[in-house]
Amino acid sequence: SVDSSRITVSKAVLVEGSQSFGLSLTKGQRQSNASVGITVVGEALPACSIDTIFTTKFNANSKLTVQGSVQATIDEKATGTWSEDYNTGFESSSELSSVSSTAISKNVLGLTSSTFYLVIPAGNLIAGADYSFRLSASFTGSSTEAASQLAVVVNSPPTSGVLYAQPLSGSVLVDSFSLITTYWADDSEDFPLQYEFFYYLQNGSSTICDDSRGTIVRILRSSNKVGGLILPSNPDGNITVGVTAYDDPGASAAACSTVQVAELEASASE
């Protein structure tokens, strides 16, 4: 029995699960009863969530931005930390930290919440790889953590494409050229492809296919061929003709070929 309006129950006698506490008041022959039910959890945890959702593949040449949040549910400081579970290119948290534009770990004061961003600049994810980014949070001194995860599938660009040019040589302003591209391979869900045809003046004997140098002659079309092209001459070498193939999520790859375009020879008038 107690003679007080308050009773304190030691945590040593509490076990996880639902428990009921009863109170009986007696005065003379009169008695009144009351009870209350509580649920005891093993240890308080911060609230942790990832708010970003990707419904399609992610392109490696794009910046990755993931938004999460951590809430300190009790009056204790919590720490939130980003990590990558599959170790795909990030073997440790320090490697993830070295490429992230934002801090991968920060503190949250008790009974407050904070937004956590993970920003990875373009070019740091591996095409075709699967990533599992994880936001975890725990209270200071606790080994138990709450966590939320986000799966990111990085798109692979089309591969194996070739470009054919007809004819392989001609004269400027006289002969027109046709280009056709084929044999592109990609994941079935990434079709259809679109094509962008280009050309540029080739210097020397270089065989590098560089679509960033190209003069665009046809912009993003579903047809894999183009005809009637009038190309300039190049006294210093051949003309590189090329195509950039884009899959449906936006990844791209290029294929090139070369043609010779001769200048017209002036004829002597009689």
TrEMBL record:
GO molecular-function terms, A-Z: monoatomic cation channel activity
Compartments (UniProt record): Membrane
REJ domain residues: 1-270
GO cellular component: plasma membrane
Statement: the UniProt record of this protein carries the keyword Transmembrane: yes
This protein's UniProt keywords: Membrane, Repeat, Transmembrane, Transmembrane helix
Primary localization: membrane
Any GO BP: calcium ion transport
Family membership: Belongs to the polycystin family.
Name used for this protein in its record: REJ domain-containing protein
Source organism per UniProt: Heterosigma akashiwo
Organism lineage: Eukaryota, Sar, Stramenopiles, Ochrophyta, Raphidophyceae
